[in-house]
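Hi R.,

Quick one: here's the Glutaredoxin sequence you asked about.
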Amino acid sequence: MASYRRRRIIWSIILFTAAILFYVSHNDPSFWSLPQSLKDLGFSPSSSRAGQVALAKLKDAAQRKTRAREIDGLLYFVTEHPIRRFDEADGQIDVKGAGLVTVDPEQAVDLNVYAPDGEDDWDNYLGLLRDVHPLVVFSKTYCPYSQRAKALLETYELNPPPFVVELNTRSDGPIIQKILARLTGRRTVPNILLQGQSIGGSDDILKLHETNELKGLLEKGGLQLNGVYAGL
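And here's the predicted structure, written out as C-alpha cells:
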C-alpha cells in the first residue's frame, strides 16, 4: 500500500510539472528562445528573473550580430586572422561549432565563418575596425595600379596606416576577390575600403587627390595625416 501511495505521489508531481511547463510554453512563445537548460528548469522570461536575463542576453547577442554587415565580417577576418584561410583545410575552413565549411563567394557568407574561432562580440569588432583598421587596401603585389595607389596613400603618412591585403600572396585570394566583387561591385584591384565602404581604385583616389577631396575624406574616416598634406 505504501509503495502504491508513493507511486501516486510521484505521478502527481510529474503530471503537475508537465502541466506547468505546457501552460508556460503555450502562453509565452518566447519561452522557446531560452537555452534548453533553463527550459528544463521551468524558467520563462515572464515568470522568472533568470529567464528574463537569459533572454535579454540572447537578444543582445543577436542585435550585435545584426549590426555587423558581411563586409565588416570580411574585414575582421583578414585583419584579425592573418594566418587563417577560407581554403585552409582541403578547400574548406574549420569554424568552431560548425566544423569544416565550404565558402561559396557567390553566396552570402555567415558571420560565424568570418569569426572562425567562435568570437561573437561584434560591437567590439566593429569598434576595432573603425579605430584600428579604418582603411583597408586589397591589392596585388605585381599590379601597377595597386602600386600607384599604395604609393599615393604613403605620401599622406596616415595614422593608423592602411592595412594592405595582397591577394596574390594568399591561397584564398580568388575567393576574397569574388566576395569583394559581390559586396562592393568592384571586381578589380586595388579595392580601397574606408570604414567598410569602397572608395574605388587607383584612378578614383588619384582623382580625389587631384581635386583636393581625398584629404577630407580620409580625415572624415578617422585617419590622421602627418605628411605634406597634413596642414593643407
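The CA atoms of residues 67 and 122 lie 8 Å apart.

Cheers,
M.
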